Amino acid sequence: MAGFNRGQEIWRRLTLSFVFLWFFLGGIAHFMFTDLEMSIVPPWLPHHRLLVLVSGVFELLGAIGILVGSTCGAAGWGLVLLTAAVTPANIYMWQHTSHYPAIPYLALTLRLPFQAVLMAGIWWSTRPAPGPAGSKIYLQKV
Q1: Which of 120, 119, 117, 141 is nearest to 129 (CA)?
Q2: In DSSP terms, which residues pair with 136 in a beta bridge?
Q3: Which residues pair with 137 in a beta bridge?
Q4: Is residue 109 a part of any domain in this protein?
Q5: Domain count within the chain
Q6: Span 29-50, pLDDT tens digits
């Protein structure tokens, strides 16, 4: 198909699958482990429980949205914005490593650049692929 060769399309689908699992499982975690998720919200933000639950809903909606052709692009941009919005929590964890002794310092440090890689993966896997006659195709048959 025009725009992507077979190899690119396979990598695109693998990346999309990773993004789906990352946000679907992460969204579920917001409801199953609400108190733990609340512990990483920086103290200067209000309404920790509400922020955790709302972000969990958006993670689940985004995960499902990237699987639907008509919403894939918008859901992808929503997940990019959501990933940027939770960056303060990751920075807070990195700055207060003593609060999270079970998580290695290296993991907390690498999580920050991983956010940029994750956002790039979301964008790349959810952007429309150029199709024939200028049409946009989100999910192509491999």
Answers
A1: 141
A2: 130
A3: 129
A4: yes
A5: 1
A6: 999 999 999 999 999 999 999 9
